[in-house]
């Protein structure tokens, strides 16, 4: 639970909704939102932040003045999309992550890039990252829609559905922090991620270039999602994927665990994965693209790799400070007594690694238990809550500051890898994975070192 | 203090709550803490009724709007051995629980796994789930004193500060009109740190000859929670209910 329910999940779920609303002028439409409901929703949003923001200076913002300035606009909003623009503008003044509006009702799943109500959820079967001007395909699901359409890792995407790279490049710098390439990558990813899922059978037009610079113009037919569709609390339904693999390199056996979100639906598979890979010479935990989720899962799962009571960090509210206490996991899923995994552990991060993933990676890094490979994480690590607003939307709002062991703060800074291994198009086209390759090589070296000392 | 209060405190760690509105203090002589709690015990049914209970099984529903979560809870208590088991079912997550079989206190949930309670956490759990927690204040607290009056939701109450054996403080407020406990401000130390919770009790109903609040609202960590008691049975509970879960037994097997 959360003090525990550190929301996190999706800066993008909220951030993107807010981003899109801020970036565009809503189409004119008949009034579908009463002034009374708009006022109640605005006041609830303002009050929740006023009551819970841990910094009583509101990060230097005059919160009362913000209310007085924006409330008339909220009352004039004629629809929920219009109101979201106002609410997002208000929340953005704080300059912190984990503040946003998650559309409710019919808009919810669509805004989350998730499945809609009227059919089986589907997905494009590929992941992308923003390089400042275009999207690079960083992963293609074997047998998925993108794979079937001939899309390969390393391809450049100029547009997909309604998302156009040129437009993204124009809009993103206008968003809070959007001139920072790191933050821009996150915003852009969020925008694109929304169109990469929908209903199975939906089509998605993709335009770009292959590795030789030839034009690619493909129509993807979305296929059923790989993974379990899960709900938790006020979050929209999301696909949960937990993958495990075993690699061999230089005589070392390396277990790899990869998952896309910290939702309770993943707990069983995550616990089993650690247990299955217990005999490996090292374990790689791939948190690239993992935007976070339920915060309490981080210290819980960290207990598989720490053999003493310790803390991953502390959440600091106006009057209380609570530790994310690690409970060493001494019983396996079969109910047998075990010891936490003691071998070398590598964690992979990138600019989409956010929130709970940062608390996990950064906390264990600060404790000296893991070595982090890849790119600096999103820098969006604040515990948050998600109350529902009077109009049915969900307010994502941070309720505490977060500091890791030794006082390190990941918000805005991110988890800095011990071994930077940024993704490159050349590596992708060659079928490589610089971060994973470096992590596996490190584990193999650790294995050799242990062998020499035995 | 009752099982409800304990559950609230436990779940405060999960983040929930309710705001207590302070109001001007009335100039009026204060009764002693002993007088206040004696009146409270009488008001909820009297020592005899309280002493006659040997078991309690409470079912309740807890909601946490900030997370969009509603939790179903069953809490079982036995006077003999001060045994307790609390079982909670959280949609989308699974089952979690905590308990004490007379020798070993434990907690277990899918996120953090099973663990044995130790140190201050153990002491706090045993204090919270003491079967006599709502009747034997003298045993539960090393010190009690009345400190003033407050008005909560228009209701005047006497504030009694109580200090646990471990030094944590609870500020209870007992209604002037009927003596009921209507609010508490709890400063509890847990493994995760010290956390303050503000709690309001209302809708007192008769459960097996004892009046207990059917509604509890709490605020902690800036969040809110509500607990609604659905039923409380005082029928005998099978001893097997308090047996250690398999994963806890495995932990003890070291």
From TrEMBL, chain A:
Signal sequence, start to end: 1-23
Claim: ATP-binding is one of the keywords in the record: no
Any GO BP: signal transduction
Matches recorded under InterPro entries: ClpP/crotonase-like_dom_sf, PDZ_sf, Tail-specific_protease, Tricorn_C1
A cellular-component GO term for this protein: outer membrane-bounded periplasmic space
Chain ranges of the Tail specific protease domain: 222-422
Keywords: Hydrolase, Protease, Signal
Alphabetized GO MF terms: serine-type endopeptidase activity
Record-linked Pfam families: Peptidase_S41, Tricorn_C1
Enzyme Commission number(s): 3.4.21.102
Listed PROSITE patterns: PROKAR_LIPOPROTEIN (PS51257)
Entry superkingdom: Bacteria
Protein name: Carboxyl-terminal processing protease
Annotated source species: Longimicrobium terrae
TrEMBL record, chain B:
The name this protein goes by in its record: DUF4412 domain-containing protein
Lineage top rank: taxon: Bacteria
Keywords for the protein's UniProt record, in alphabetical order: Signal
The keyword Transmembrane helix appears for this protein: no
Keyword Ribonucleoprotein: no
PROSITE patterns given in the database record: TAT
One Pfam family, short name: DUF4412
Organism listed in the record: Longimicrobium terrae
